[in-house]
Every structure is written in C-alpha cells, then in structure tokens.
C-alpha cells in the first residue's frame, strides 16, 4: 500500500515547483497483489469497511475478478488520497463516496459543507493509484511492455518520439519512451473534460523539460490539444517518471481550483 504514498511524500517538495503555487494534491496507491493475497472473506471485509452502501452494491455487481479488484483498488486509492488532502481519518472513508459520470469519469462526493477534491484513477499491473487535487487532475500509470510498439501509430507521431528521445536519458529504451508518451497522453485525456474525450492523436507533445524521468528528477512534458481554441487550455503540462517498471504521468489544470 505504501509505495505510491512513500514516493509522493518523499518527492512532493521537489515536484511542487513544477505545479502552480496554489495546487494542492495527494497521490494514493494500493497494491492489488496485496489486496488479493488474503482469501475472499478478507477482501469482502475490506470492501465492507471502506465502501459506502452504493459502492458496495456496484462492487458486488462485477462478475470478473480482475475488474472487481482493479475497481476496488482504484476506489481505495482515491479515498486514501482524498482523505489525506482533506485531513480526514481513515474512519471517514465510507462517507467519501465515489460516483461515476456517464462517460466513466470518477468524482468524489463529500459530506455537506465540505469541498470534495477532484480525483483521477488509474490501474496497471499490480497497482491501482489515484490523485486527489484542488483542481481538475489526470493520472495514468502504465506497465512497460513490448505491446506498446504494436499500437504506436495510434498515439505517437515521429516528431514526438524525437522530442522524447532528446529529453530523456539515453538509458531509457524505446519501449519506455513510448510507454511514457502513452501514459502522459492518457493523463491529459483524463484531465481535460471534453465530449467526446480527446483522441490520443489530438494531443500533441510540444517539448520535454529538464528531469531524468525519475521520481527525484521527473520530466515535465508539455502538450497542446488539437481541439478548437477555447475548449482546452493552450498548454497542458504533465509530470512524468518511471518507478517500479511503471510509467507515471500526472498533471492538473491550475486555473480552475476548489478552495
Ligand atoms: C478512461 C480511459 C481514458 C483511460 O483508461 P486506461 O488508461 O485504459 O485505464 P486506466 O486504468 O489508466 O484508467 C481507468 C480509469 O479511468 C477513469 N475514467 C474512465 N473514464 C474516464 C473519463 N471519461 N475521464 C476521466 N477518467 C475516466 C476511471 O476511474 C477508470 O477506472 P475505474 O473504471 O476503475 O473507476 C480509456 O479507458 C478510454 O479511452 N475510455 C473510453 C471512454 C469512452 O469513450 N467512453 C464512452 C462510453 S460512454
């Protein structure tokens, strides 16, 4: 459970300078392998302890075990991040209800009178992670793997690969660069509310700044969207790094905040 939080708590002081000064965010993570290690009754106990009645009904409705675990892990990670941002104890998780918009976008509801942070959820491999923030946010984690080469034309332009190659340390292989680009674009899609969702080829990488692509020195990628002016911010920044064989990408829209 502690992996994402440990990274966040250690590196947020240096990441903070890459976000707008008013940004408040928290990253939570849940190990799916730890979640399923116990027997079914432990999983049910966890779900009953932390989910609201409506969330529990939804969770019980999933027939596929993998999806059921990912969904639960994402909810727990979002509740963890949301309650940390709100300064609330674990005991209040049942009251932090996560609902879903028609297009699948998750949102947090808090008790009357309390602000509910924006959230973004992602799962890949054995990890579920979530970002909670005082502004619209996007998070994506993606396990590196050779399969990314088969779909590269669906999300990457050759000039974007060139930008990444010159921005990242040479020690990163092509597979890792493509995975980072994929994760970064997915985080932008989640961050920007648009209907339909931005297509991966509508999001264009403009530049990569500084950073080694590690949690200590993340890479800041800047993107522009191909949608008409006014419907999206002109420049969208995403903080990216690799940790534990996963590409991590996260960002928020600083001009729209909840105080
Ligand atoms: C959502 C999406 C952008 C990212 O998915 P992904 O990178 O494959 O998978 P991830 O694990 O990183 O993210 C999945 C999470 O994204 C979140 N999500 C789903 N739809 C979302 C949206 N429209 N906006 C923001 N977040 C969304 C959910 O929390 C989901 O996890 P959950 O279902 O367990 O709650 C991708 O699945 C997608 O393009 N979906 C198509 C959505 C669509 O067109 N829906 C129209 C049908 S109404």
Describe this structure in words.
The protein has 259 residues and is an alpha+beta fold. The protein has 2 domains: 2-137, 4'-phosphopantetheinyl transferase domain (Ribosomal Protein L22, Chain A); 143-250, no CATH class. Helices cover 35% and strands 25% of the residues. The chain has helices spanning 2-15, 32-37, 40-50, 53-61, 65-86, 158-167, 174-191; strands at residues 25-31, 97-100, 106-109, 118-124, 127-133, 137-143, 203-209, 219-225, 236-243, 246-252. The strands form 3 sheets. It has a 5-stranded antiparallel sheet. The chain has a 3-stranded antiparallel sheet with strand order 1-5-4. β4 and β5 form a beta hairpin. α6 crosses α7. The protein is globular, with a radius of gyration of 18 Å. The protein starts with a helix and ends in a 7-residue tail after the last strand. The mean pLDDT is 91. It binds coenzyme A (COA). Coenzyme A binds next to α5, β4 and α7.
Tags for this model:
single chain, 259 residues, alpha+beta, Ribosomal Protein L22, Chain A, 2 domains, five-stranded antiparallel beta sheet, three-stranded antiparallel beta sheet, 10 strands, 35% helix, 25% strand, binds coenzyme A
Estimated share of beta-strand residues: 25-35%
Largest sheet descriptor: 5 strands, antiparallel
Assign an overall shape: globular
Total of domains? 2
Bound molecules: coenzyme A
Order the strands across the largest sheet as they lie in space. 6-10-9-8-7
The CATH class name of the largest domain reads: Alpha Beta
Residue-averaged pLDDT, rounded? Answer: 91
- The CATH architecture term of the largest domain is Alpha-Beta Complex
Structural class: alpha+beta
Integer-rounded radius of gyration:
18 Å
How far apart, in Å, are the first and last alpha carbons?
A: 28 Å
Could you tell me the number of beta strands? 10
Indicate the percent of residues in helices: 25-40%
User: In the CATH hierarchy, what is the superfamily of the largest domain?
Assistant: 4'-phosphopantetheinyl transferase domain
